[in-house]
Amino acid sequence: MKSLRRMELLIISLLMIVLTLIIIILFYIQGKERTPIDHSSPEIITESYETMQNTSLEESGEPVNPYFPNDLAVPLTSDQGRIKDQHSFAIQSIRKTSILIHTNEGERTFSTPPQNNSMILEAFGDINLSSAKADIPEPSDDGIVYIRFHAEDVVYSVAYDLNSNTYLLGGQRYYATYNTIGYMNLFCRPDTILATLGEMRMTDMETEDVSRYVVNQSEQYKTSELKVQNQNFAEWYDHIKGDPNYKQQMRFYSILDDKIKTILVDEQNGVLFTGLSVFFTKNEVETADGISIGSSTYDVVSRLGEPSKMTRSKWSYQVDEEHYLHLYMKEKKVQYMSLSFL
Question: Which is it for strands 166-169 and 155-161: parallel, antiparallel or unpaired?
């Protein structure tokens, strides 16, 4: 009886070992076959990619993304209308985005912060293919970015050129939005003046969430106190349009009026003009009361008063029904300033 009992226990043990090995093998096979979707943190990451192989091709016959051969092209059925209205590409199915940067210095991949996924996707989806076409020479390989849209079981890739702010879709180039310029330069070329637009745009996103800013309607401001270098927005507009120091830096598609616009830059003085805003990034300008980049929050309140709108990082002073002076704050000091229309 005892020897029979021992035999039964031995058989059971062997069966358990075999079952465990089978489960391990099945998990390994499943992991090898699954298309990897990267869920890492919003920092630059190391992600393996393959060189050109069997790949999904765009209409031109070129690889969609030579570093990730399984990525698919965004399926457009027409070159007219907004991307988000094309039923062939279900924007609502996108769960996250990641970006692969290709420059002369090599490749890097990073996963975008979850709070910024909607901004990237909306900026892409709002492109009007009828209006945003870009007739430009084919860009060089330096500065090519692959924006990857991750759905549940597929990843779509779009080639984006940092130097021209254009997407490549179906063999045609289209201008991206102002938001895309700021965001891509912030992460891909953080030392450029265009990257400062990305910093400010990230801050602007806080004010778009009404629950995150405080509104103060009690303060009345003198219009003269909210000028920069003794000029309001309209005066800066006229000045910039007639000043040869402002060079065309980048073109972009404006969702607001469905037109192609240009960012003008005076890099020496750190001033950028987008058509609706004048941004000041260097301590070369000040308000009538002496508020400039580097001024403390204490100085701002004592000279200008409490802002009409504020978050932790952005204080806004309403000039009139259509114009604002914005102060971008960091570590209790003014980091950037802008005059804006709406």
Answer: antiparallel
Alpha-carbon span 16 to 109, nearest angstrom: 43
Amino acid sitting at position 134: A
DSSP letters for 197-229:
HHHHHHHHHHHHSGGGSEE--S----GGGG-BT
3 state DSSP class of 290: coil
Type of residue at 130? S
Q: How far is CA 321 from CA 23, 307, 317, in A?
A: 67, 15, 11
Q: Which residue has the tokens 């939005």?
A: 177
Closest CA relative to residue 88, chosen from 79, 99, 101: 79
Q: Tell me which residue has tokens 């972009």.
A: 252
Quick: pLDDT tens for 221-232. Answer: 999 999 999 999
Plot region of 226 (φ>0 → left; ψ -120 to 50 → alpha; else → beta): alpha
pLDDT score of 43: 46
Q: What is the CB neighbour count within 10 angstroms for residue 41?
A: 10
DSSP state of 83: G
Look up the CATH architecture of domain 193-341: Sandwich (2.60)
Element (H, E) at 169: strand 166-169
The burial class, CB within 10 Å (0-12 / 13-18 / 19+), for 297 is: middle
d(CA 117, CA 204) in angstroms, rounded, equals: 15
User: For 15-66, what is each residue's pLDDT tens digit?
Assistant: 666 555 555 554 444 433 333 323 233 344 444 443 333 334 444 445 689 9
DSSP 121-137: HHHHHT-BTTT-B---P
| Domains in the chain: boundaries | 44-176, 193-341
Give me 58's structure tokens: 């765009």
Closest to 182 (Cα-Cα) out of 127, 268, 246, 120:
120
Q: Which residues contact 57 (CB under 8 A, 6 or more apart)?
A: 63, 64, 73
